[in-house]
Amino acid sequence: MTKQKLECFHTKENPTWCPGCGNHLILSALKKALTKMDLDPTQVVVVSGIGCSSGLPHWIETYGFHSIHGRAVPVATGVKLVNHDLNVFVVSGDGDGYGIGLNHLIHAMRRNLDITYLGHDNQIYGLTLGQTSPTSERGAKTVSTPHGSIETPINPLALGLASGATFIARGYAGKTAHLADLIVKGTEHKGFALIDIFQPCVTLNKVNTFEFFNKRVYELTEHNPADFNNAFSKSFEWGEKIPIGLFYQTKRDTYSEDLPQLKETPLVKQKINNVDISSVLEKYK
Prior knowledge:
CATH superfamily: Thiamin diphosphate (ThDP)-binding fold, Pyr/PP domains
CATH topology: Rossmann fold
CATH architecture: 3-Layer(aba) Sandwich
Radius of gyration: 20 Å
Number of helices: 10
Strand order of the largest sheet: 2-1-3-4-6-5-8-7
Shape: globular
Helix content: 25-40%
Number of strands: 8
CATH class: Alpha Beta
């Protein structure tokens, strides 16, 4: 296969995100990662739910599926189990994925499905104009919490560690080259890859801005991603310094590898011409 150019993943339509939105940079990082891996657009499926980030499948020239709110992971699960050869991505916002879709995310991580999950984390509900989200900081003043949120935010990385994800990382939209490398590593990893991504909402979140993260994020270098306990400790580091990079990686059989019906041959390649279902149909006459 000839080397894929970045332009192969461009669409005729332009994204409708707000100018300056971090989603533009995440889309750019994903395209760069796919180009680095020399993937053909027909080898990639991007599945989304509902929210600002979930428009992404419309603006990348690959297969895509825009599902309903919080249900991107079940759709992606079906795609991967049917055809193991496809590189399956889920793009989901903190409201869509860590809120209404959280139960699906937890079970996908513990099953170790071979999927790459890109969590667009802007710490606010963007599409519905600024309510507190599951990752909003305690005390956050929004249209739904004008006196400040009293809730403790979800920690996506700690949740991933506790749920059994085998690749856990954090990226930042403001560092696209670093993020692209994380996406490459997560995609090449056999198993569930959770990549939580700081994605500043320039319109509605005036606290967790690009300036906020530029002053605080630092790349993990002297860290052993095989050390579960240290990864868990690092996941709670928040304040003047906030780490990004690969927190944890381990090996475990994927869900497909443990399914005897699919281990050798994915569903899409199984022969069904000799299957007789007449006895089943007879029951429903």
